[in-house]
Design brief:
Blueprint (H helix, E strand, L loop, with lengths): L8 E2 H24 L10 H23 L14 H15 L2 H18 L7 E2 L1 H18 L8 H17 L8 H23 L1 H6 L4 H18 L19 H11 L6 E8 L2 H14 E9 L2 E8 L2 H11 L1 E9 L18 E9 L2 H9 L2 E5 L8 H10 L2 E7 L6 H12 L4 E4 L5 H9 L7 H13 L2 E7 L4 E3 L2 E3 L4 E5 L2 E6 L2 H13 L5 E7 L5 H13 L4 E8 L5 E5 L1
Parallel strand pairs: 7-8, 7-9, 9-10, 16-17
Antiparallel strand pairs: 1-2, 3-5, 3-6, 4-5, 11-14, 11-18, 12-13, 14-15, 16-18
Helix pairs in contact: 1-2, 1-3, 1-9, 2-3, 2-4, 3-4, 4-5, 4-9, 5-6, 5-7, 6-7, 6-9, 7-9, 11-12, 12-13, 14-15, 16-17, 18-19
Length: 569
């Protein structure tokens, strides 16, 4: 069924474009994933672009819902403005950006929004302004990448802008249909540039594919054409005659190894609240730590993407610059793109990996350094099954151990594991109830062991670890230790409230004494950002003085919800 065309680029056109882009990327996702060989052959560019646009769509729909009357469509003159819609689109893409290409797409949309909202709040814009938006988008995206490479999505975006420039020169301001002409020219220019990417980037030529991120941008521009014409442009974006190579372990590994010689082990992505000056220093530091650096955003909110060997250092750099959150750390398997120069035959998948849900930024770095792919569970925002599925796929392993680290996530994790098993991946779910149990399990993880033996050892270590936490009550409620009031300090042991008090250190000490009364050899303390700095020193001293032969280890968990996590093994 043909799409009703939009005459101008207004709020409704933004909504239409976002929806069409999401549907188009949904159809093209697997094909784009299959040709993903640069900068890392991790087979997720199509998925990352889809998730980025999905976040943009959700933000735009929220704006329209806010203007709706009685849950329906907004009445005449009561809908969101163009500035509302494009601002929501750009912000949604920024906070939901995934991967290298998704981050660049977020900056492209932000660049467009900056032009489309300039000079007040116009109800709609025309072809010449759309052309300027595409030009600024391409330039701002290129500036966001530390070391731009030709033959990538940046090249495709620049070609789209150049073609739009030429089209806009022949269109009078405000002429009917000029947005369609500019959009079609941008699409044609991008499509031609995409077809030429193998000649610009040797890794693409060897694999017989075009750039995956560029393919995604062409798909998004095709949706823009459909927005203004009512029909998707033909022919298909570009022929990909050898996309099947990316599915072949050996071929994909060879292409990736040749395309990425530096070999960082981790992909680190986070949102960052920081000032411009601090971000400028952050760029320099991250550029020295790794590669594939993209920093997008502005006005105090940024999305940071980098490939590094030291994931903890990349997160710490963000902490020094401002407040990082929604941290995602992915460990590239030993058999993927980063085996270049090791002398080992590269493969697409490693044999075994660990995926863990963690409650804070500090633990995300700790788990990642131990080789795990992490999913950050933000306070009050547990990951959905789909997010866990993506993490299990990103692990790029034939066998995966999943650590949910939260009793409330057990069913969600089980659903994700079941879905991934249908794809031929062997998944073992260890029912860890706390991040400290996950630390214990990870400490005994040995990838060289048989899978079943490794899972048994990790399960045993987790089960032998008692867990507790110290938190602040949000409201009055009944507990197993009595009635608590909002603001009371709660000590929970194995999930049940055991202590109610007013002082964090006193409650923590009482909880620790109760746990060590049953014995123990190692105490693990994970300090949250909101906890007093002195609490861990007090607890360490208490263990030294009262419990002989018991060791203590302390980690910083970041914004983890609880003030303190305690584990006793």
């Amino acid at each position: 069924m043909a799409q009703v065309p939009q005459r101008f680029f207004d709020a409704l056109a933004v909504r239409t474009w976002c929806g069409l882009s999401l549907r188009a990327l949904g159809r093209a996702r697997e094909e784009i994933d299959a040709i993903n060989v640069y900068p890392v052959a991790d087979g997720d560019t199509g998925t990352n672009l889809y998730l980025t646009v999905e976040s943009a769509v959700a933000a735009v729909e929220a704006v329209f819902a806010a203007h709706a009357v009685d849950g329906g469509e907004p009445d005449a003159g009561g809908g969101p403005s163009l500035a509302d819609a494009v601002g929501a689109m750009a912000h949604g893409a920024l906070i939901g950006a995934r991967g290298n290409s998704g981050t660049i797409l977020a900056q492209l949309l932000r660049g467009m929004a900056q032009v489309l909202t300039a000079g007040g709040e116009p109800a709609h814009t025309d072809g010449p302004r759309l052309r300027l938006a595409l030009r600024h988008a391409a330039e701002s995206a290129r500036q966001a990448v530390a070391h731009p490479v030709e033959g990538t999505v940046l090249t495709v975006a620049s070609a789209a802008a150049a073609a739009a420039d030429a089209a806009a020169d022949g269109v009078a301001d405000g002429a009917q249909g000029d947005c369609a002409a500019v959009a079609r020219a941008a699409y044609d220019g991008a499509r031609a540039a995409l077809a030429a990417t193998p000649a610009q980037l040797p890794v693409l030529e060897r694999a017989g594919v075009v750039d995956a991120g560029g393919h995604g941008l062409v798909t998004v521009l095709a949706a823009l054409v459909e927005t203004f014409t009512g029909r998707a442009p033909g022919p298909e974006p570009v022929a990909v005659p050898h996309a099947r190579l990316a599915h072949d372990d050996e071929a994909a590994g060879e292409c990736a190894a040749e395309g990425d010689e530096s070999g960082p082990a981790f992909e680190v992505i986070y949102l960052l609240e920081a000032e411009d000056a601090a971000v400028a220093r952050l760029r320099q530091r991250l550029d020295a730590l790794g590669d594939s650096l993209v920093v997008v955003g502005g006005e105090g909110l940024w999305n940071v993407h980098v490939h590094v060997d030291d994931a903890g250092a990349a997160v710490e750099a963000g902490v020094e610059a401002g407040r990082p959150y929604r941290i995602r750390i992915t460990h590239f398997g030993h058999g993927d793109a980063h085996t270049a120069g090791t002398g080992r035959p590269p493969r697409e998948r490693t044999q075994r990996a660990v995926v863990a849900v963690v409650p804070g930024e500090g633990l995300a770095g700790l788990y990642a350094e131990a080789g795990a792919t992490t999913v950050l569970a933000r306070p009050g925002e547990p990951p959905a099954s789909g997010e866990l599925v993506q993490a299990l796929r990103r692990a790029h392993a034939r066998e995966v151990v999943l650590l949910p680290n939260d009793v409330e996530l057990r069913h969600t994790a089980a659903a994700a594991a079941e879905q991934v098993r249908t794809e031929g991946i062997r998944v073992a779910l260890i029912p860890t109830r706390s991040a400290v149990q996950g630390i214990a399990a990870l400490a005994v993880h040995e990838p060289e062991r048989r899978f079943d033996e490794d899972v048994v050892a990790m399960t045993s270590a987790a089960g032998a670890t008692r867990h507790a936490e110290v938190a602040v009550a949000e409201r009055q409620s009944w507990t197993t230790a009595g009635i608590c009031q909002a603001g009371d300090v709660l000590g929970l042991v194995d999930g049940d409230v055991a202590v109610i008090g007013a002082d964090v250190t006193e409650v923590a000490a009482t909880v620790l004494d109760r746990m060590l009364a049953a014995g123990g050899e190692l105490v693990t303390l994970v300090l949250g950002d909101e906890a007093p700095e002195t609490v861990t020193a007090h607890l360490e001293a208490r263990v030294r003085e009262a419990y002989l032969a018991v060791d203590t280890v302390v980690y910083r968990g970041g914004r983890q919800g609880a003030l303190l996590l305690i584990g006793v093994e």
